[in-house]
Amino acid sequence: MDDSRTPAGVGVPDSKLAREATALVRERTSDLIYDHSRRVYFFGSLQGRNRDLSFDPELLYIAAMFHDLGLNEIFHGSGHRFEVDSADEARRFLQTHSVPEDSVRRVWTAIALHTTPGIPEFMEPEVALVTAGVEYDVLGIGYHDLDEADRAAVVALHPRPGFKRRILEAFADGVRPKPQTTFGNVKADVLAHYEPGFERGDFVRTILDSPWPD
After folding, report:
1. SS3 sequence, 52-112?
2. For residue 1, pLDDT beyond 60
3. What angle in degrees, to the nearest 10, is found between the helix axes of 125-134 and 101-112?
4. Computed from CA positions of residues 121, 123, 128, 130, in that sequence, does the dihedral angle turn out positive or negative?
């Protein structure tokens, strides 16, 4: 793998930390998740450039690479949202490399909030840009904000054949064993489409059925 390639002028940080993160995620995930995670970094970086945000490329890269690790089968019994499992794995990785706690916090938060729209954009640049990269690659939000040639360069390096269908199936596989973790978040939509008999948690019923008498 040649990480010296810089699609759209965005380079992958050439640090021991980034190289080890790449190797770890490459080993533990599928091509689908690996390529998606790399695109999230590139697209997030390009959106950061567009928004004139000053960010730490290494922290953004680590957060992008780890953000979907919690979909792996090893976490199916955790009882936690996959975003939290992903964030916890990134935190463990960073702490074993003696990364400062503020940096660890930024990465953890960026990953934990990447499926919670309306909040990350108001937080630190690394937090905002992981979500921006995810929203660009998965949802197409801001699709025309980036130059067509830049977009094509990223996709040429990390292709997305059948991506829409495949990523939805990966989401469904990752959260199907713990449907309770989808309460109040976007993954409930995934199970509603992919899991027969799935019943969403109902916020109103939760309030009305609480033990409070009134």
Report:
1. CCCCCHHHHHHHHHHCCHHHCHHHCCCCCCHHHHHHHHHHHHHHHCCCCHHHHHHHHHHHH
2. no
3. 30
4. negative
Q: Which of 60, 75, 91, 98 is nearest to 28 (CA)?
A: 75
Distances from the Cα of 106 to the Cα of 41, 69, 87, 102, angstroms: 15, 17, 10, 6
What does the alpha-carbon distance between residue 196 and residue 178 come to, in Å, rounded to a whole number? 15
Residue pair 134/67 in contact by the 8 Å Cβ criterion: yes
Q: Tell me the backbone φ, ψ of residue 48, rounded to 5 degrees.
A: -65, -40
The candidate with the shortest Cα–Cα distance to 60, out of 144, 141, 124, is 124
The whole-angstrom separation of Cα 149 and Cα 44 is 16
Q: What is the mean pLDDT of residues 137-166?
A: 97
